[in-house]
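Here is one chain, start to finish.
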Amino acid sequence: PVNIESKENIMKQITAAILVILPFMLLCKEEKDRTKTERITKAQTGTENSLNTAATRLDTAEVFQTVLALEDSLRKERGNTDLIARLLKASYDSSSGSFYTVGKGVKNPKLPQAAQQQAQERSAQLDAKRWTLYLKRWHTGSSTSFGDSIGGEITYSMIVDEKMNNDTLLQLVQAPVGSVVVD
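Its structure:
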């Protein structure tokens, strides 16, 4: 038989152990709750930031359409200074310090099937590069007309969007102004 004194002693030991462990358990729970709250707050802030960024982002569909229409007009009216000014305004994004151009690459049916797409992409990229060089020259105040000889280097650019229009590949290309060097 277990005597009452020993039961009381065991109960005192258990109570003492609980009293020692309980604060640690409460601290752990508080830490877990705090961590969970921080994660929720970070997730909400991230969502808000991405929504704010989306609201300030460039409307690439609009830029694509506007720049393409102005480039097409300038192909027909090469020296039209009003069109040049409008294209320069439409294609320059001051928030990123970049030019946006649309390069065209027409499918060449004379090439083997395997080479057609690659040639079309290369053609669109070269066309976008040429437009970017003209934009840089116009941006610096030059009175160069579209179609005049132009050369230079673009150290960085990226394709933002592309579309197919029948047999023509259209690529919207972004190039930071500082990466464009005109000869």
